[in-house]
Amino acid sequence: MIKPSNLLILPNFEATKALGKKLGQNLPKGSVLLLKGDLGAGKTTLVQGIGEGLGIHDPIVSPTFTLINEYQEGRLPLYHLDLYRLEPDAVSELYLEQYWEEGERLPGITAIEWPEKLSYLPLNYLEIQLSYIEGTGRQVILQPVGDVSLDLSHIG
């Protein structure tokens, strides 16, 4: 069930980036974010804000053609995955579990665009659904799944 506090309306690009910045400042080590939404919904903009909140100064761009961009500077490393161009069978061969499985997890924040392509999901993650609504901006739904230790009351 979606709580009203987990539903946000972001009127513009700057608000989307600001939400990402707040997340970047507050996400604990090992957090996994599954970013869902159509093309142009603001997934990469949100990740740019997360990078800013983590203190990353390198430009954050969509890894559509490289699949994974890793940013090591900042409070925590950021692993940005974009699975848009892959078929689900190809994704399962990449061993992406190292980004989220206990005991193998890399020590940072993992943001995955187009997680629908994953053959299986992590046990614990924050699902972020972004939708563009004409005349309003973006609607964002934040939904923790599993054991996610993030207080969402101050986000938004």
UniProtKB/TrEMBL annotation:
GO terms for molecular function: ATP binding; metal ion binding. Keywords: ATP-binding, Cytoplasm, Magnesium, Metal-binding, Nucleotide-binding, tRNA processing. GO terms for biological process: tRNA threonylcarbamoyladenosine modification. It is found in: Cytoplasm. Gene3D superfamilies: P-loop containing nucleotide triphosphate hydrolases. InterPro entries: P-loop_NTPase, T6A_TsaE. GO terms for cellular component: cytoplasm. Its main location: cytoplasm. NCBIfam families: T6A_YjeE (TIGR00150). PANTHER family: TRNA THREONYLCARBAMOYLADENOSINE BIOSYNTHESIS PROTEIN TSAE. Belongs to the TsaE family. This is tRNA threonylcarbamoyladenosine biosynthesis protein TsaE.
